[in-house]
Design goal:
Elements (H helix, E strand, L loop, with lengths): L7 E2 L7 E6 L5 E7 L6 E5 L11 H9 L3 E5 L19 H9 L11 H15 L4 E6 L1 H12 L4 E7 L13 H8 L7 H15 L7 H14 L3 H12 L5 H4 L6 E6 L7 H10 L4 E5 L11 H12 L1
Parallel strand pairs: 4-5, 4-6, 6-7, 7-8, 8-9
Antiparallel strand pairs: 1-2, 2-3, 3-5
Length: 311
C-alpha cells in the first residue's frame, strides 16, 4: 500500500478503506481497498454510469474472505472521481450508434476506453501494485480487455463479467433495456431520479432475484453520494468512439474467464461468447437466470468462480 496516501474507513463499508488517488494526468480517482496488503490483488472495473458501489459489499467481502485484496474505484466522470468538462461540439449519438453497429469507431468524444484503461495502469502505479487480477463488468469488461492487451506486465489473470467486444453484427441490446439505461428520469427531483434508477435495476437485472427494498436503498445511497448524468453520456460516447475490440482480444495472452447471464437482455449472452471465442484459450461460463447485475443470490457462485480462476 502506498503510505503517502491518506486512508480512512469507508462510510459505506467498514471493512474497506477509502482514499483519493491523483493519477497525474489531470484525473483523481476515488478508491476503496479491503483485505490484507500481502494477499494477491483483484482490481474491480465497473460499467457504464455505475459507481463502484455497484460491486456489492457482500461480493467484495466474499473475495476478501477467500484470500484476496480487493480494490474498487469510481471510473472518471462518475461517483466521487474527477468529472470531465468537455467544450467540444455535441455529437449525434444515434449516428454514432449506427457506425458502431458495424464495428466502426467514431471521433469526437472527450476520451475513449483506451484512456480509461490507462487510468487503471496509473492507479496501480500510484497504489504500488505491480500486478493484479482484473475483473471487469460490462463497460468495465471492455476496459479490462484493453488493459490486458496493452499492459500485460501488470496483469496476472482476467475475468470478464457480462461484457462485449463490440464486434460487428452482434445482436443489439433489447430496446427496453438500452433506453432504460440512457433514458431520462420523469422528474429532476430526488424521488424522480431514484424511481428512474429503480426502473433501470428492474429492467436490466436478474428476473425474480431483485430485492426491491435493497434496490431502493441502493438507489438512494447512490443518488446522495453522487448524481452526474453528463458523465454517463460521456462514458457512453467513450464506448461508441472506441469501436470493436476484436483485434485487442487477439493480443490477450493471460488466462481469461468470461462469465455471462442467460437472462441478460442489455448485452445478450452471445456477446460474452464472442469475447471468449476471440481470446486465445478463454473459458466461458453461462449463469442460468442471471441478468445484467450482481444480485445476492448469485454472489457465492460468482465469487467462487473468480477465486478458483485466480488461484
Amino acid at each position: 500500500m502506498n503510505n503517502s496516501l491518506q486512508y480512512s474507513i469507508s462510510p459505506y463499508t467498514p471493512f474497506m478503506q477509502e482514499t483519493t488517488v491523483d493519477l497525474g494526468n489531470g484525473i483523481q480517482l476515488h478508491v476503496e481497498i479491503g483485505g490484507k496488503t500481502d494477499d494477491p490483488a483483484i482490481i474491480l472495473i465497473m460499467g457504464l454510469g455505475a459507481q463502484m458501489l455497484f460491486w456489492p459489499d457482500f461480493f467484495c467481502k466474499s473475495l476478501i474472505d477467500q484470500g484476496f485484496r480487493v480494490i474498487r474505484f469510481d471510473n472518471r466522470d462518475i461517483g466521487l472521481s474527477s468529472k470531465i468538462r468537455h467544450k467540444g461540439p455535441r455529437l449525434n449519438t444515434f449516428k454514432l450508434m449506427g457506425r458502431f453497429a458495424f464495428g466502426l469507431s467514431n471521433q469526437g468524444s472527450p476520451y475513449n476506453l483506451y484512456d480509461m484503461a490507462d487510468d487503471v495502469a496509473l492507479l496501480m502505479d500510484r497504489l504500488g501494485i505491480a500486478n493484479a487480477n482484473i475483473i471487469g463488468a460490462s463497460m468495465g469488461g471492455m476496459i479490462a480487455q484493453i488493459f490486458a492487451a496493452k499492459h500485460p506486465e501488470k496483469v496476472d489473470k482476467v475475468a470478464l463479467l457480462f461484457t462485449s467486444n463490440n464486434q460487428p453484427f452482434l445482436p443489439p441490446p433489447f430496446p427496453k433495456q438500452l433506453f432504460s439505461l440512457i433514458g431520462k428520469p420523469a422528474s429532476r427531483d430526488e424521488d424522480g431520479i431514484i424511481n428512474h434508477s429503480l426502473k433501470v435495476f428492474n429492467v436490466i437485472g436478474s428476473p425474480g432475484y431483485i430485492n426491491q427494498v435493497d434496490a431502493l436503498q441502493t438507489a438512494r445511497k447512490l443518488y446522495q453520494r453522487s448524481y452526474y448524468p453528463a458523465g454517463v453520456l460521456q462514458q457512453f460516447l467513450a464506448i461508441l468512439c472506441t469501436g470493436s475490440l476484436v483485434q485487442i482480444d487477439k493480443q490477450i495472452q493471460k488466462p481469461t474467464l468470461v462469465v455471462h447471464g442467460s437472462k441478460d437482455r442489455l448485452l445478450p449472452s452471445s456477446h460474452g461468447k464472442a469475447v471468449s471465442n476471440a481470446i486465445s484459450g478463454a473459458k466461458f461460463e453461462l449463469i442460468e437466470g442471471m441478468g445484467h447485475d450482481i444480485p445476492a443470490h448469485f454472489i457465492p457462485q460468482l465469487s467462487g468462480l473468480f477465486a478458483k480462476h485466480f488461484k
